[in-house]
Batch of 2 targets.
Target 1
Amino acid sequence: MSVTLKLRSEALAQLNAATIAAHLQAGVVTVRTRMRHRDLLSRALTGLRAQVTDDGGSVVAAWEGRRITFVYGPDGVQMAHVDGPGLAEAEAQRLVLSVDEAYAAEVQRSVLARLKERAASNGMVVESERVNADQSISVTLAATS
């Protein structure tokens, strides 16, 4: 028996540019994100070549003369605060959306790794794996016995 699963990064974490624009005030944009996992967020930011610091209460990324500070809200969801001199709405959108895309890719990689681990421990092997044009990943698992 085989099972094919398709992992889509954009379904895992995606922000709306209109939401970001609605929160831009006085050179600082603050948006509620879907980025719940601090380690995946740090990996995503590092992958974007940001200088990342994590003080336990917030994750701060600095690059391109801009700073994004992520802090947890009361529901465990990250809030992103973007600032920097001359920050424009379009730039804030671009920065937050780029972090969101990188985070989604990290979530996708993490889910794929867990899937492979669990498949192996449940007597299954990866029969095939491919990255599709839309960056989703199709994985076919087969039972070993």
Target 2
Amino acid sequence: MTDIVFSERGDKETVETGDLLMPKYDADGLIVAVVTEHKSGEVLMVGYMNAEALKRTLETGEAWYWSRSRRGFWKKGETSGQVQTVHEILTDCDQDALVLKVSVAGNGATCHVGYRSCFFRKVTSPASGKARLERVEAERVYDPNEVYGKH
């Protein structure tokens, strides 16, 4: 693997319009990564990367993240086969957010509860009462309980 180096944060103009990648990580050393399907633009998930996860992603062409709950690296699809091949990475103007355009291997699901996208529900606001969620994906791609034996 190569030794990818990110540039130190520069002045505002260099960060916002220059040609050097200068990621701005939060206090925990993380940058948000919005993941979309590369052809359709459908939002699949949101993950977080630290510098090493971003480097691994650039080096391998497959998406790596930092799991905040497990406090460790996570290669998407490593156990499920739903590996995300990265086609393009975009950053916003102040370089504190990324968009990964990916294709998903295996059965094509991204969500750990079996849906294609983690965003399989939309928020509805009834005239009165509690806000509700309504499914926008009718069917799961797979049932994780059957695949992973969870009950």
